[in-house]
Amino acid sequence: MDANRKWYKQVRDDFIGWLDTMNAKLADIDDGYFDTPGKKGINRINNNLMFHPNKPIYKDHFGAGLDKRPGTGDFYIEIGIERCTYAGGLWRPDPKRLRSIRDAIDYDGEELQKILNKKSFKQSFGGLWEDVKLTNSPKGFSNDHPHIDLLRNKTFAVATEFSTKEIFKKDFEKQVIKVYKEMLPFRRYLNQAVTV
Q1: What secondary structure, in 3-state letters, does 40-103 show?
Q2: SS3 assignment for 136-190
Q3: Is pTM, for the whole model, over 0.85?
Q4: HSE of 161 in the Cβ direction (CA atoms, 13 Å)?
Q5: Which of 1, 30, 54, 84 is deepest in the core (most CB within 10 A)?
Q6: How far apart are CA 145 and CA 130, in angstroms?
């Protein structure tokens, strides 16, 4: 890092500038957007070695969350050397927020299922991120609940990868906005669940 710090800072500043541009563009299309300047959205370059001791000290990508209201699921974009990713939602939320999401599903899980089943959503993200699931029903819900498959999830997030070549296309920012819009009803559902 010491040998490349000047170059790293230059690239980081460029990425922060681009995030500022996207922050403004996303705010224009979403009335409920939470202002997230690039410096607030960007993730640190260091890996958390306490939880992942086998990872390298530094990441090989820049990651940032936009529309990053505290306590809610943001719109995440990662630009790396080998892969790039769009993602959003809540990764293993704490017990209180997880219970809030499950309560929302219990109340109107049909709405979330409708979002997940939308053809363009499935084409964009496939479905919910595959992560740890309960084998039985969560406490307070029966095994024959109509939305038991959703209720057993511990993570409520979606993601899709894209090629680094996409970054250099003229319509890249339009593509970012398109993915943001496609993901928005899903994120709104979850964020309403954890903030109401």
Answers
A1: HHECCCECCCCCCCCCCCECCEEEEEECCCCCCCCEEEEEECCCEEEEEEECCCCHHHHHHHHH
A2: CCCCCCCCCCCCHHHHCECCEEEEEEECHHHHHCCCHHHHHHHHHHHHHHHHHHH
A3: yes
A4: 7
A5: 84
A6: 21
